[in-house]
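Supplementary Methods S3. Input chains for the assembly prediction are listed below.
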Amino acid sequence: MVTRDVKETFSGRVGAAPAPAALAAKVRTLAPSMTRSMQRVAEAVAHDPAGCAALTVTGLAELTGTSEATVVRTARLLGYPGYRDLRLALAGLAAQQQSGRAPAITTDIAVDDPIADVVAKLAYDEQQTLADTAAGLDTAQLGAAVSAAAAARRIDVYGVGASGLVAQDLTQKLLRIGLIAHAHSDPHLAVTNAVQLRAGDVAIAITHSGSTGDVIEPLRVAFEHGATTVAITGRPDGAVTQYADHILTTSTARESELRPAAMSSRTSQLLVVDCLFVGVAQRTYETAAPALSASYEALAHRHRR
Amino acid sequence: MVTRDVKETFSGRVGAAPAPAALAAKVRTLAPSMTRSMQRVAEAVAHDPAGCAALTVTGLAELTGTSEATVVRTARLLGYPGYRDLRLALAGLAAQQQSGRAPAITTDIAVDDPIADVVAKLAYDEQQTLADTAAGLDTAQLGAAVSAAAAARRIDVYGVGASGLVAQDLTQKLLRIGLIAHAHSDPHLAVTNAVQLRAGDVAIAITHSGSTGDVIEPLRVAFEHGATTVAITGRPDGAVTQYADHILTTSTARESELRPAAMSSRTSQLLVVDCLFVGVAQRTYETAAPALSASYEALAHRHRR
DNA sequence: CTCGGTATTGAAAATACCTTTCAATGGTGA
DNA sequence: TCACCATTGAAAGGTATTTTCAATACCGAG
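Predicted structure tokens for the full assembly:
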């Protein structure tokens, strides 16, 4: 193998598209994978886009008590070629906020919140999660995943815990349009099934943390057997992505004591899965449409009895 | 008299404030006082703000067939300290223009919609569903259900098909805070378990149509054995409600060929289930909080290995 | 038509800003 | 405790921007 010197330049670049309005979401998504100083920079940027847009690298470095190098690294991690471009995006964001809507302040759910507040806050947060996810989703990656799935001989989906339910949701729907799909939440069975996959098949791993071994292992096997692999994860830098041909990023809303991460990650994952499904249904419309109405009929009879 | 060299720097500055969105107007106002080359630059800027924002001084100078100096002079005339700041304003303007354009999300998803539209429409629809659900949820009923569940000896949840996943989601979370909860999607097992229930237990049926026999039957049995029964349904007039002490209504968003009802009903059901969960977690905070952090710890270790 | 003066312009120097390198540091696991 | 790797910022190295300045175009008067 040829070893090549890689400039630090592109090493950290994770997100594909420079996000316009999805910046705050992206910061949250990538925050866990950032170093402390980078987090400080990211926080400053997310907290006051307009203010930061007015600063030079040096200024922002001073403000956050870090160095220019760190600022540039952060900009790279957020998906921009350099600080200059991050700054431009920031200016855009600032303009949007100012002209547009409210900055959306979310208070956490407290133990003594009345139930009506709980409903309002949860609904708001999940709406926010949806918006963030949609904004941060790389449509090129999604399109590629859709194409692969639509043409697949067979689709295996891996997910454990809360993600397991999302995996089942996806397969339920894919089955409805006549595709061959399986959800595996048992890691052993997942691996033994993964060895059956070959080129033209598709394997999809769903993991919020991006580091769930039980899900990575079957994806690795599928990858090595030549299947097209897709990762749906909240951590585009996670271990799972090294075996993923296509990466679909879910957004990470902040969690709190009473609102576990599983809640918003699930919302985000489901949206991605829905998009994937509709995309596949579009591509296979000829067969999908009659299959859908057939299953609809079948259920209608079941209810009527 | 002392003659001093005056830098060209501030000579041309005319406008007082850097214009945010009124840039095109400013260009027109100042055009007559501009030299020919400056007019070319101003015209380019007014014509395609987004495009120019992507260019460096040198780029814009080349594009307009002028020099960097002229570009800077034009920026100054427009009221900015230099080209850098004009460029930032341009980026902001571009972002505003773009966001102002409505994505035409009112329409249904069509077979030939590009994938980006699919994402936007789905996200929008699900957001709408959430808002509708939150607005239509009866907090009194929800509060009653929460009280019952928080005090329950045991909680059984019934759901089949897509609702089965929601049932599992709920039980997963309730288990996490130390409650005893089971999800049943097998109607036979559901009924045989329902006969075990008695006063102080809670049975929850989840059905979008409100008429799913497989779910109604176990709820009826639970009801007759004295358990407190809850129905989560999109049809508050459905058959399921006759055995329900508390009714939680989910919203019914319109469906289309490519977007089956299961999609938005699931979103709606999940919100209701989340509210129920958080409510219960609040009431049982003493035991729920340590249980939540314990399960968090357990998972963290699993990922770290 | 020619000349002197002024306005306009761009090439190139100077500067500010951004990016990269690299050595020092601090934390982590063996 | 030691060796190692990740993290960090100082400073070197490049670009982009700004300024200078000389060349040129323009204009009105003689």
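The longest strand of chain B covers residues 202-207. Residues 261-283 of chain B form the longest helix (23 residues).
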